[in-house]
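Re: your question from the hallway

Yes, I did run it. Sequences:
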Amino acid sequence: MTAYNGSFINLTYPALFNIQKALNEAGVGDFIKATVPLNADVYNSPLENPVPSAGSFRQDIFEEMKLIVNFLAHNKAPFTVNIYPFLSLYLSSDFPFDYAFFNGQNTVSDNGVIYTNVFDANFDTLLASLKALGHGDMTVIVGEVGWPTDGDKNANIPNAERFYTGLLPKLAANRGTPMRPGYIEVYLFGFIDEDAKSIAPGNFERHWGIFKYDGQPKFPADLSGAGQKKILTGAQNVQYLRNQWCMFNPNALTFSNNTNQLGDNVNYACTFSDCTALGYGSSCGNLDEVGNASYAFNMYFQVQNQKAEACDFEGLAIITTRNISREQCNFPIQIGDPTSGHSDHNHRFISFSLVSMLLLFTAL
Amino acid sequence: MSNRRKQSTTAGIFLCITIVSLLSGDVSALGVNWGTMSTHQLPPKTVVQMLKDNNVKKVKLFDADTNTMVALAGSGIEVMVAIPNDQLKAMGSYNRAKDWVRRNITRFNDDVKIK
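Structure:
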């Protein structure tokens, strides 16, 4: 919980207090509530008795949590928690893989109550923690739950599909958890991939979407929870940039054997774009050095809306109209206005003069 | 956003109409998080259409962006809005909090189901 350090209580509680007070004074406080989404690591069960019913808020932030929970309870506001079974895999090296899903064989017995998945166990650990503060009946919203599809060896489409195939029917059937059967209000994380998210927690951060960056579905999922292998409806009428990619210039080897030059340029490209698919166990993790460079150059080129000067890299890169995607490893084309960026037919200059004219009109 | 590091980048104050969610009849409705940390974003209207096409009735945002709120207006989709972390400190001032509520909540109250 080091990331919370002092700022957690110093900033969160006063903000929560003031916002709810403002809502109340505006006359909407009865039906609009302020809540704070917290991660599942603010509570736990003791090591010597690792069962949900023994849960409590962590000792090092206990007083702060008590303050927040009492305030939420006083205002009849819900507790909001983010539960990530994917991240549970990394909490300890011996975490049973199947327990992160909903169809595994691993079980935990809590005084005779059988837990078959970490989502339920986690949720009920929170309920026990709330109960210990005298608020066992508090409404709990799951603010985030999901599974990423790239950027880590466990973040892939089969695992994500397995996770959602278990989660969605469970939620739709209002099965709830052993401690609280019934409806749970849940928000999936997330809807669409975000290529500019901080990757401090890991490369998977940019791959949480059930839809890709362009609003197209990644895998079959039935949000109605009927458990059918339905294809989600993707974004309609999406505009893409031109059908062109940036790749390593195969002729560049003849004039540059300087690998640092290549490495430096790849680093530059990745710093200002998204290379998270290149890591170990990720969708493009098997590319050779040249493939890596092409991937990085293309990602930068696309982020820069295919501007010609964004595919140079000191002569190491060249624009191609041949799709250089590999099996498993997609070299994407970004979404956007196809008339922007590089064109072989000098359309750029035409659009440039159009823009100038428009500016003139605006000025007039 | 989960585990401590995720929290530190995305936690905020979320506002919600619990009465709406508890009594609105959508007791099996599933929500999704709509994050916008992307270099290239789909037009908000396109995303709202995706929500509708996939029968998503509730959405949680990480801010209260005007374009997003305008796109959601009239859609019947319940919205949970957020104060990003970098604005939490400002909310330590009651006047700033009051101003935020006025600009982001009460202003949309008739058109957007803020939750």
